[in-house]
Each structure stands twice: as structure tokens, then as C-alpha cells.
Fold this sequence. Notes:
Layout: H1 2-10, E1 25-33, E2 36-43, H2 46-52, H3 58-61, E3 68-71, E4 80-85, E5 92-100, E6 103-112, E7 117-124, E8 129-138, H4 148-159, E9 165-171, E10 176-182
Antiparallel strand pairs: 1-2, 1-10, 2-3, 3-4, 4-5, 5-6, 6-7, 7-8, 8-9, 9-10
Amino acid sequence: MTLWSDLAAAFPSLERLPEAARPHVVELIPSARGTEQSLCVVFDEREALRMTAPEVPEFILSLTAHRYAVDLDSLGTGAERYYVDEIFDPEVALRGWICAGGVVVEEKTYRRAGPGRLLIDRRDANGAWLSRDEPECVGSDVDWSGEPQVLEAARAALAAGEILGFLVLKKEGRSQSYLRIYGVVP
Length: 186
């Protein structure tokens, strides 16, 4: 797969993904947070997350979701990023956690705020608010703030039929963008 090798060149962490977890990859989400870039992998199966991230807190794996995700580049850093979608919640689209050694340091709630818009609430491990209503929205290709070759790889993969599509998300008021590549066939 060309997309896989192109992204592995930009994100060597992708090569550390266990072979048994690869068939469960449904999305790849490169992120650009200021000058830092990382790659989040989304699975359709909780066991693929467990294989990939052995220190994932058990309560995350016990949640009912149809997608489980981990930022591969965050593993082992003391700021590991995990996500699950909320299937049955009409308001909450996604929950996320930043963990250190399997212990939650921060929790994020991504709330639906209209077509193509989310509002993000962040709390520390004690439940104290860190921020509320941080806006995130669907952008366009020009909003991608990461390496240009990552966007080009997504465009080429779409043209070659390797993926179903991609979209750019951006945080309003911050230098953060995400490239959500979906319909991935590893």
C-alpha cells in the first residue's frame, strides 16, 4: 500500500504497529500541533488497541465503542493519547485521555456543535476544568499545518482508490490541524 509506506516515512511509529493489529485499522489521523507532528491510528476492535498500547487503562478498553484510537507517537512519552467514540450519546462524539504510565492526567470531551463543528472540554485528573468549549471544525486542504507530503500522500491514496476519503480538521485559535484519512485498507 502506497499510503502506508508514505505515512511510515513521515511517521516511523507506524512501523511499530503490531502486524496482528493492522487488519483492524480503519482510519489514520496525522496531527500537527505547532511544530510537533504525530500519527493517531483508529481501530475497529479494542483488542487491537490493547496489542498496540499495553499500558492503556482498562476502563478505556471496557467502554462500548465501535472505534478505539491511540496516538502512536505519544506511546512511552508520559503523555499517551487515547480516544474512543461515543456510539449512543447524541451530544458527545468522542472522549479522549492523556495518560502517564496508565494513569489519567487529562480527560477531553468532544461535543457535537453543528455540522462539521465540535466543542472540546478538558479536565484534569481531579475533574477541575482546564478549558471549555474549545472550537474545532472541518477546514480545507490549506488549513493542514503539517508536512505537505502527508497531505499529498492522502490525495494520491484517494486518487488510487486506497482510501474512501480524507478531510482536514482544525482547532480555531490554535496552530493545530488534523488530517482524518478514512476507509483505510492496510
